[in-house]
């Protein structure tokens, strides 16, 4: 039995139904059946949210320097309220997002709130002013300084795979910076957005500063935010195709865009790795059914130990067995994929894999585990990097294993990708690992499983993985624009 309550919009300080009262069904990834309803925002609702956010930015003191401490206090109280709602957040993550109980303490809830705390902790390090010193020019003395000011109204468009984590990543940074926000969560996960509205007034957020809109149409609200001149910045996480469209459509109003667009990251296991068996086994992709933008979905293994790696993986998948796919099992960290579209897409790519490479483990849907979108942990070997399964982001529980000949070859293969989000190397020689790390085109990289993703570290990609950085002090500064002021004087 779930405790989900209908997801409502939040506009100008008011929890609301959609204008006209339309709703849509939220489908459970576990059962393929309706589990909740959500308000279906119309263009009228999105317009009201834009007006409210614009007014709150232009006509109140929210963004003023004098309110920095107040914003920190409000975001602290907001976090306390989220923490007090931990169980509810877990219910939402499990029932709406398809997270298995064991992932609640990972990125789905606990890490998201820990990241929020990290934002509060790094806030004192935000650079609000910079002194450029004095310079003589044209007979004048010039004292130069920049003031870093909140950029304005932010449209935050977020996905379904780690909805709380990504919502926090955008909303909290923008609020701390002094922006006003319109959060637009994915149609699959509206409740994880709606809760930001439900708790906003109690946290003391002034009217219009925080707004939440969502609807059945995945594009309607988002496109309105992207094309509207009154929205100053779009912060988007999702697919590369939509990210490109946002950049194109945002160009009309020369909007600032932050884009985080996923990846096909490489995990390189060198032949000198003293923990070779463990590190190859860790390449299995199961957490949240592999639906993570920074997952290391290409496992690169030195050719001299490739057969050994295959045997390790075979045993690892066998040992893992059926320890996944039970909604309330705290030991399970893998559930279904999010929706029917993803289910069909991932199964389609698995079929492509069967025609291109050798299936080592998994490879099937598992209707015996439930009526939802459950797909087995799957591993392909004898993969070459030009295959579709090595190039396309599958966004499911699928890893592909590719052999390499030497460090140069590993670097070449890792970089031979449209994406550049993350990756890692496992080795007995950290200096060798570091040389490889410095040559990989990616925004984050781990050596020997180092945790390169945390709320106090900047996260983002290069190439088709996106533009800009989220989290850490850099993540807050994404929402600031420097204004340079020079004070001239003669004499
Ligand atoms: P998507 O890019 O379509 O959706 C992401 C968000 O953008 C949602 O809120 C959606 O409603 C909104 N959106 C959709 N069309 C829009 C438009 N034209 N203008 C503005 N906003 C729009 O992603 P999806 O279809 O849900 O997933 C497809 C693929 O995207 C996945 O298979 C995966 O490869 C990738 N993905 C990546 C991430 C990531 O973390 N980078 C997250 C989810 C999905």
TrEMBL record:
Q: Does the keyword Oxidoreductase apply?
A: yes
Source organism: Novosphingobium aquae
What is stated as this protein's family in its record?
Belongs to the aldehyde dehydrogenase family.
Superkingdom of the source? Bacteria
* Keywords (A to Z) from UniProt: Oxidoreductase
- Catalytic residues as annotated in Swiss-Prot or TrEMBL: 260
Pinpoint the Aldehyde dehydrogenase domain residues. 19-485
The record's section on InterPro entries has: Ald_DH/histidinol_DH, Ald_DH_C, Ald_DH_CS_GLU, Ald_DH_N, Aldehyde_DH_dom
Note one Pfam family from the annotation.
Aldedh
Name-wise, this protein is: Aldehyde dehydrogenase family protein
Could you list the residue ranges that cross the membrane?
Answer: none
Quote the CDD domains the UniProt record gives.
ALDH_CddD-AldA-like
């Amino acid at each position: 039995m779930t405790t989900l309550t209908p997801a409502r919009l939040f506009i100008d300080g008011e929890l609301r139904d959609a204008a006209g009262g339309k709703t849509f069904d939220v489908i459970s990834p576990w059962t393929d059946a309706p589990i909740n309803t959500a308000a279906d925002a119309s263009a009228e609702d999105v317009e009201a949210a834009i007006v409210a956010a614009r007014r709150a930015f232009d006509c109140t003191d929210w963004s003023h320097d004098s309110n920095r401490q107040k914003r920190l206090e409000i975001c602290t109280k907001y976090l306390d309220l989220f923490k007090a709602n931990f169980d509810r957040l877990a219910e939402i993550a499990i029932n709406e997002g398809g997270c298995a109980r064991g992932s609640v303490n990972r990125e789905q809830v606990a890490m998201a709130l820990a990241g929020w705390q990290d934002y509060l902790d790094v806030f004192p390090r935000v650079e609000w002013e910079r002194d450029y010193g004095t310079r003589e020019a044209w007979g004048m003395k010039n004292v130069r300084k920049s003031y870093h000011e909140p950029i304005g109204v932010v449209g935050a468009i977020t996905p379904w795979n780690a909805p709380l984590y990504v919502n926090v990543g955008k909303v909290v940074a923008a609020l701390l910076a002094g922006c006003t926000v319109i959060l637009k969560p994915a149609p699959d996960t509206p409740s994880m957005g709606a809760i930001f509205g439900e708790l906003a007034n109690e946290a003391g957020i002034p009217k219009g500063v925080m707004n939440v809109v969502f609807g059945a149409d995945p594009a309607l609200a988002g496109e309105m935010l992207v094309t509207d001149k009154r929205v100053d910045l779009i912060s988007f996480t999702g697919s590369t195709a939509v990210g490109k469209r946002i950049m194109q459509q945002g160009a009309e109003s020369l909007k600032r865009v932050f884009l985080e667009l996923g990846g096909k990251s490489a995990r390189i296991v060198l032949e000198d790795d003293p923990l070779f068996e463990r590190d190859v086994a860790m390449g299995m992709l199961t957490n949240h059914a592999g639906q993570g933008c920074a997952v290391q979905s290409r496992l690169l293994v030195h050719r001299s130990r490739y057969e050994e790696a295959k045997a390790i993986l075979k045993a690892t998948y066998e040992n893992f067995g059926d320890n996944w796919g039970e909604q309330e099992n705290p030991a399970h960290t893998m559930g279904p994929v999010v929706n029917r579209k993803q289910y069909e897409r991932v199964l389609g790519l698995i079929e492509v894999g069967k025609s291109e490479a050798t299936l080592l483990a998994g490879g099937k849907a598992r209707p015996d585990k439930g009526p939802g979108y459950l797909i087995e942990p799957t591993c392909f070997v004898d993969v070459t990097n030009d295959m579709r399964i090595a190039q396309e982001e599958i966004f499911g529980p699928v890893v592909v294993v590719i052999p390499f000949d030497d460090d140069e070859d590993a670097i070449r293969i890792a970089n031979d990708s449209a994406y550049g989000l993350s990756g890692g190397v496992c080795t007995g020689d950290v200096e060798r690992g570091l040389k490889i790390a410095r040559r990989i085109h990616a925004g984050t990289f781990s050596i020997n499983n180092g945790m390169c993703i945390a709320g106090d570290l900047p996260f983002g990609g290069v190439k088709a993985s996106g533009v800009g950085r989220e989290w850490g002090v850099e993540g807050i500064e994404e929402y600031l624009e420097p204004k340079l002021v020079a004070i001239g004087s003669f004499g």
